## 1
Amino acid sequence: MKTPKITQERIIEYLNQEKRFDGRGKDEFRDIQVELNVSKKAEGSARVKMGKTEVIVGVKMGVSEPYPDSPNKGNLMTTAELLPLSSSRIELGRPGFDSIELGRVIDRGLRESGFIDFEKLCIKEGEKVWTIFVDIYSINDDGNLLDAAGIGAIIALKNAKLPKYDEKEEKILYEEKTDKGLPLLDKIPFSLTVHKIGNNFIVDPTREEEDISEARVTIGSYDNFIASMQKGEVGEISVEDFNKALDLAEESKNKVFKKIEKYLK
Amino acid sequence: MPKEFKRTDGRKIDETRPIKAKVGIIPNADGSAMFSTGDTIAIAAVYGPKKMHPQHQQNPEKGTLRCTYNMNSFSVSDRIRPGPSRRSIEISKITEWALEPVLMLDKYQNKVIDVHINIIQADAGTRCAGINAASMALAHAGIPMKNLISSISIGKLDKQLVVDVNKDEEDWEEGEGATDIPISMTGDEKLTHIQLDGKISKEQLKEAVELARKSCKEIYEIQKKALKESVENKK
Amino acid sequence: MNRKIVVPGEIIASGEDFLPGEGTEKKQKDIIALKYGLAEENKNLVKVIPLSGVYNPRRGNVVIGKVENVTFNGWVLDINASETGFLSLMEVPRYVNKDNLEEVMDIGDMAVVKIWNINKRGIDLSLKSRGLGKIEKGIIIKVNSNKVPRIIGKEGSMIKIIKEETNCNITVGQNGFIWINGEKIEDELLAKKAILFITEKSFIDGLTDEVKKWFKENKNA
């Protein structure tokens, strides 16, 4: 059931007093729990829990021909599935817009930051390159699947190991993992979404709060640069508010980073 | 005296892999559970009973059990493209047939009970793990049931029967190869599901079912314990 | 017989004298559980109290619902059951203009209603009683409907403690929706926390004392 109107009013009233129902500040994330190697069959995988929200992200490697316009570069493909088991609101059937948008937003954040050195994923120019598959699954939706997925993706990528590639047989030997990680740059890209509720901006909304989010901006940043951005929902944001959102995102990012640093070594 | 058959992981022929079971793992669901045996991990969530949508699928005579079985792309070595496959659709149906006999659906006209199964890591026996998780999740959701359902995969490797086949054994190539027999039973030992892939004599099949009966009893006790513990832990 | 957690198919008690109550069936001499829950025996009647599961609507229940749809002659409410309920404009204690239903209650509004009839066609709701009506402000929380008896307590003893400690008006719907209305949001949130605490500890004995202790520890946090 969507958050009832009267609760919505209370949430906004409280936000106007700089407070949230669970006692968090506007720039605070819920407690984050991370578990690595959720699936042994993945080249890398992570489970991320933010409060009651839970996602699992897996990295699989494949080998294929490169795209004709980038013969010496590997590829990245990011998919997200909002599983019906994670919420009563998700219908059976083909992936809805939400799944597709989630995948694309995370993909953009990873791609635009230059995090992945695609040239190092080349096995034989024009013939064989590695493709990185990042697959995101929602397990329980209590708001902000977007950022949970983003965190899961960078952790899974950072902890992934390349499997052996038998060039003669042209086969990937998945059972034999090497010690080699993926060709990633040191600076981690971070995807963070800021939500507008009334005149307030918050991060990491619970489902209750996300129901009344009028507009959201997902900012993919990298070092001190912003590499990607996506605004969602139908609300409008004034330019001043937009600037406030950017500042909030930066402050919040630093706090969250500290929580997940150890998984990104 | 015949040599004791050596399994790849050193188990006895009637030994299951180490099993873990837990309920209440998905807060949004009406009922949920995790069931793992060895490296095969399944989770299940139940939503319902609720009004059936789409409307044209409503059954005015009794409720509908609707199961979906889905393997994560990274649950296996060779990535599975996300989305339903023929295999997952078949297993979804098999799962419905395995579970429905213990549900009393005539009280739920026009309603649906949705069971969603997800395989997080696969090392053979996934449909059985899914059925075990689903059975616990249904009970956890307070759905009236005559009994729990327990499921196990019996294998015949060449001529030897073994319990709880793992992936290496599923790919057995020596002699007569591998015959895979997933079986599900109620807590009072009634069969609700059996499939077979391979080659087996009638006598050995009877033996296989007998082995399944024993193992399903063990699994039933584990499922029961998981359901009881989810409450005890809160004391 | 001690109260114990049972699973479907489990034999709760065995003997000629025992009678099968709710959530059980009798097979020969055995009383068998048909649900996951707490088995209880009282004067030979054995029943299973569910710990979980979707709300099962009963005639006479006072519930809290959310308006999902406004039709030409009433409102359709989500009452957290497997069916929606219908509130006819004839069941409102004052005159309602047929063209102005939305002005009385619109989609998204919540109300305390009573289930006055359940039949094959559906669940009929009414506002024609004291204590019923549209909810104007406060917060709504959702708990599993099976926990409601514990939240209310014997003759309302538990809910009374929460109301006094938090200075809030609290209406507990039998369907698990609870309306909390206080002067300060902090009070409402404290009541919410207390209620969630009770749902987590609902199985223990001496819950009343635990709750009093909880308030001492949490009230001025």
## 2
Amino acid sequence: MYNEKDINEQIAWAKINADVLRSMENPRKSYWVAVVMCILMISCAVFAEYIQYTVGMGPSNLNNPHMWDMYIATFVFWIGMSHSGTLLSAILHLIHADWRKPIYRFAEAMTTFSLMTAGLFPIIHLGRVWNMYWVLPYVSDRGHWPNFRSPLVWDAFAISTYLSASMLFLFVGMIPDLAICRDNARGWRKKLYTVLSLGWSGNDRQWRNFRKIYLLMACFLIPLAVSVHSIVSADFAMSIMPGWHVTTFPPYFVAGALYSGCAAIITLFVLLRYFFRFEEYMTLPIMEKTCKLTFAIAMVWSYLNLIEFSSVWYGHDIYNKELLIDKATGAYAWVFWTMLFCGSVLPFTLAFKKMRRHMPTMFVVSLLLNVGMFFERWMIVAPTLSMSHSPHQWDVMWGSIVEWAIVFGSFGWFGLLFLVFVKVFPSVSMYEVKEMVYHRRRHLINEDAATKFHRRSDDGKTTTGEPGLEGA
Amino acid sequence: MSLDNLLGNWSQYRKAHEDGGFHDYEHRWGMAIDLDICTGCNACSTACYAENNLAVVGKERFEKGQAMHWLRVERYWDQSELDHPEQGASFLPMMCQQCDAATCEPVCPVAATYHTPDGLNAQVYNRCIGSRYCSNNCPFRVRYFNFYSYYESSWPEPLNMQLNPDITVRDKGVMEKCTFCVQRLRSAKDKAKMENRKVEDGDVTTACAQACPTNAIVFGDWQDENSQVAKLWKKHQVTRAVTKQKKDNPEKRGYRIFEELNVDPSTMYLERVREKI
């Protein structure tokens, strides 16, 4: 009924180059509209941050119990988003899931850009932004050190390490493709790619070294990715607040991170497939596999939610239990139930083949999944602050326009980075798609040879048009 | 290093806090607040505003929850389980409890809040970068953040002349909280040192204790056995470094708020006695 091939093995290598390089050229009108929109969104945030910088944190509506709010929630959201790229490129690379090849590049770019977005938020939310470098252990003549017991310091280390590692991983994985770009480019692009491709000529020794370093970095990145989000969860889990001091937070955060990341991959998958006409590379079977992966992670996330709720419920800790009841029935109830609907009910659409193969549905669903995940982060930060130990300080707070403008602008910032990326760098890995095609073709030949070998002389079938390796 | 040694030391380390932890305190400032004689008049809070250069933020920001009252008098009205609701609100003067195992301290990324040898939980304004984690991890929620810059708006000329010269006016983006009037403690210690003696009970008191018309707030050196505060703690069978007080007489009214969280507060409260009128 459906063509179940991940990719067409007969696709010519020159066509792969041409298709991907074409995607980097001649931006259409819609591209510029998107760029302008992103810049407008960023200017909203810049204006809001200007107010906050000059006046103080007051205009964001933060108050005594609500010392953190949307800034930290958005920070966790973007950090979470960054985990998908590593999952696709490192974990799936190690387990030889070759269907990741056409889609891992943009996922990795997403990792880097969402980290660059996330990294802004701890800075924005500081009361004295201009002293932010005090968190780092720089050499000071006053002999000051950061407080190494503070999870915020761990955050600073974890995020900067993860950002530099994932940037390097993205860059290293792109070198052979940059060489292809270099060979096909003119003008400033030629200069840029010449520098970036580091003299890649594709000889045997280069490939050998390249494979080694790529594998090494993949192995390095996996524990890093897991630890980064565990450390982000430590921001909450290391406190003594009800709803934050939760043992399952590290796996819960990692699962949530992979979840929102995968959902974002589906969103960008649909967009790139549509706008760059990548139907031949970002095929429906690959989409299906991504959807299945997302579904599995959604179920893990739901399970961890269930664990958290039931351990609170049966734990009979008065603070935690009241907080849980308040989440479900209090002022934030609509956020809580939307989160549960989007996070645990909606992913069941991914269980149906018809839905999985329908791009507009998947686009909407993946966006809604991420709305759910954004609300999840909100539900981690806000209710605990609104209802902690001291009943005198119970308070419900809704962020002001300043706060929301900065959150809104962060999406513009991410979008702009991504838009620039897809026009300057190949968003589909050309050399890996070629590899994939090559291996599939090899496999096909072997299969054919095998069937031929085992075929009895009298079964009457003839083989025609045996696929070969001429294209290679 | 044997395994026994390692495990033994580990359990010793883990239990250190319950045994009293760090013992080598110079002073250990403590407080006792008798809720039975507190009238909820807010004089303590006002005195604190005057003593510590606290900004008056105005009605709007107060309603938003951005007030700077280091000492707030909490009012609890709707306690249906009370025997005598007609007796009105219960008052609870709440300020930084100067916890011995303060939860705000380990989470500060720049170590702007730390423990002094006096057993105080100090806040270094110059070092604070305003991550506000300390406030989030404070079960009492008694840390106040400078959401705005208040110097011009709160003390327009000539009101700036009434500012206490002993301490600073904090600028925007900095966390602050009750210090047990550390500037008074400092000058009392200096004075005692000049006179070659130790600080005695009665040498120094906080602004709130000084202003309290009913003497509900008692402040002093908890380590000094002769001090009023130490006697009160002893009388009401309240001690430090425990998560539950052992009392042979349930009539003893002393308790510490949230001591079950193992934060070890330095302030003892005496329960209000309710009687039928």
